[in-house]
Write a structure and sequence with these properties.
heterodimer, A: alpha+beta, Glutamine Phosphoribosylpyrophosphate, subunit 1, domain 1, 6-stranded antiparallel beta sheet, 7 helices, 14 strands, globular, B: alpha+beta, 5-stranded antiparallel beta sheet, 6 helices
């Protein structure tokens, strides 16, 4: 494969994602940050891989998830792991902080964007370092933002209202998790590429905790569905 | 002496297991004028004696800022020092560009050491003829490192390199147990006292030939200006090393 981008006729530039991951929602709470992502990788409109655990732990106190092209996500996980291993190479026990990872990813994404061959991802880096929580968003262009809550993909459209009504940055871990579950419930109803099995992970002073996937509650026993009241109207 | 049989280049060992070219390079460091460094829990201080090639010339600076959190003092070939200084500054800048944080100090010293070692293992190269004292602050704490032309590096509580540095080291051996808890002012006075031990009989310390740089956990690297140097040199007269206070 030719990697010289001058021969752009032979090297492909990413123009569309093939296997994609769904939305990611991350919130800060009092004492850490919690991240949620669903466990689906879609192949276009097909729900192809339904139990993918996407939340990657890149270092002792940093986690990374993204939505978008899944192979790019896997590659970025490798790149970030490389940086963590540099502590071993230099023998000094100095590990990058979550912010270092966020900035590194922003530079990487920007470089790829400049070559018109982007990492087709919206990335979320979350961590806890030196008593401070960290939550960063890096988008496909390399834009870098730190915030108390970040959302990617469809969640940016549907979930911000829910988050601002039910969450504040000093809520408890359980409250924050509940808000995320509510958001994924809504996403499952409205986003065609969403899935009802999600995975939560949180980082606090003690370290990283990645939980087992769980199914969001969905409600399908509305009387309208059961009694098919609307259907009667349509047959008249 | 059969030394000259084995000292032509870096790629020849002597029968005693020495690389003479590297040892000769370390001699160049010993010819440079003295510079010393000492650290407490919160600060690192670098003191150097600047040489004036002639009365018409200015004084050769010996301390260079690498980044807000790191600085070096040099002894040896100034031209070689410039190369290493530029390398360190570039590395810090690149690290900051990528990670938006400061280059860990030990890691940069390691990189300089790697670079230096590389020059000792090639037929066509010569070692750098300069020793650096690297002062830096990072999340691991306050650091003072020494690098050598051989590619070795060491971390110190206090160290002096250059000509007549043994006198300063002797001073340090007596008093370094106090440095950890010293205030910045006490640290500077200790540094200048050590420097004073290393000057020749007919020389004296003044604000022109002394260079003092300070670096702290909340203090970016700065040089003391001429007035501050004058004040400290005056305070030096009455500084008692043991009690670390001014005495009449």
């Amino acid at each position: 494969m030719i990697f010289n981008s001058e021969f752009s006729g032979q090297q492909q530039h990413t123009t569309q994602p093939i296997v994609t991951g769904g939305s990611v929602i991350a919130l800060a709470y009092k004492g850490g940050v919690v991240v949620g992502a669903d466990t689906l990788c879609s192949y276009g409109s097909m729900a192809d891989f339904k139990n993918v655990e996407k939340i990657a732990q890149v270092s002792k106190n940093t986690i990374y998830v993204s939505s978008g092209e899944f192979s790019d996500f896997q590659q970025v996980v490798r790149e970030l792991a490389k940086i963590d291993r540099s502590a071993l190479q230099y023998d000094d026990g100095v590990h990058p902080s979550p912010r270092d990872y966020g900035n590194y990813l922003a530079r990487l994404s920007y470089k790829r964007r400049c070559k018109i061959n982007p990492l087709y991802l919206q990335n979320v880096i979350a961590g806890f370092h030196n008593g401070e929580r960290y939550l960063g968003l890096v988008d496909i262009y390399g834009t870098y933002l730190e915030s108390n809550f970040v959302t990617t993909g469809f969640a940016s459209y549907f979930c911000k209202a829910i988050i601002s009504n039910y969450w504040n940055e000093n809520c408890t871990l359980d409250q924050a998790k509940q808000v995320i579950r509510e958001c994924f419930k809504v996403l499952f109803c409205r986003d065609c590429r969403a899935h009802d099995v999600i995975q939560l992970a949180y980082v606090d002073e003690q370290g990283t905790h990645i939980e087992q996937p769980e199914r969001v509650e969905t409600k399908w026993d509305f009387s309208g569905f059961k009694n098919r009241a609307n259907e009667k109207l349509h047959t008249q | 002496m059969l030394k000259h049989l084995y000292d032509t280049d870096c790629v020849t060992w002597s029968p005693q297991g020495k690389l003479f070219q590297v040892e000769y390079a370390m001699e160049a460091v010993k010819q440079g004028s003295i510079c010393l460094g000492l650290k407490s829990n919160d600060f690192v201080v670098l003191c150097s004696l600047k040489r004036q090639p002639s009365e018409l010339a200015g004084y050769q600076e010996k301390q260079f800022k690498i980044d807000d959190h790191m600085a070096i003092a040099i002894a040896g070939l100034t031209a070689d020092a410039r190369v290493l200084c530029k390398y360190m500054r570039t590395e810090c800048l690149e690290y900051k560009y990528t990670y938006e944080s400061h280059h860990p100090v030990g890691r940069l010293v390691f990189k300089v050491a790697e670079k230096s070692q590389h020059k000792t293992q090639s037929g066509a190269k010569r070692p750098y003829g300069v020793g650096l004292l690297v002062a830096g602050i990072d999340p691991n704490g306050v650091h003072l490192f020494e690098t050598c032309p051989s590619g070795n590096y060491y971390e110190y509580k206090c160290q002096a390199i250059g000509s007549r540095s043994q006198a300063a080291r002797t001073y340090f051996e007596s008093w370094f147990h106090l440095f950890e808890k010293s205030t910045l002012e006490q640290l500077i006075l200790h540094g200048l006292s050590a420097l004073k031990k290393a000057i020749m009989e007919d020389e004296e310390l003044n604000e022109k030939n002394v260079e003092v740089g300070i670096l702290g956990k909340n203090q970016k690297f700065i040089h003391l200006n001429a007035q501050e140097l004058k004040d400290y040199i005056v305070k030096l007269e009455t500084f008692n090393a043991n009690t670390q206070i001014q005495q009449e």
